[in-house]
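Study the following:
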Amino acid sequence: MKRSYLWTGVAYFVAGLLLAVASAAASGKLQSLLAGFAGGGIFGGLATMGRYYYWTRPGRVKRYQEKQEEEEICLKDERNEMLRDKAGRYAYILSLLVLAVSTVVFSVLHALEIGHFYGLIMYQSALLVFLYVAGIWIYRWLKARN
């Protein structure tokens, strides 16, 4: 396992500690947000460092290499590659559908004056158009490359 994996864990941990200090100094709604980020950084860093130490112990190095080889084979397997591509396409279509439906729902709520969602509606509409155009552009770019 690369040593950079350990340093990434240390960086997450230190960032989490800095955010915890900032959370202690802050007040109001920002405090809880910073505390959440701090917890994510601290525990994510600890988990990453723990994984590094677990797999770098002398008795586990060979098993880790076997695991890496198996993952490499799975990544290059044509069937798995096709399934990942299909899963990505379905996720893309589903996200467009959810975004379109939620934009309509927020537009109706805004029209009925149940809430003020104008900024959210504009953001979601722009995101919907962006994702659609980006999907078409990426498809054409990939098609031209092959």
Summary: The chain has two domains: 3-75, 77-145. Residues 78-111 form the longest helix (34 residues). The chain has a mean pLDDT of 90.
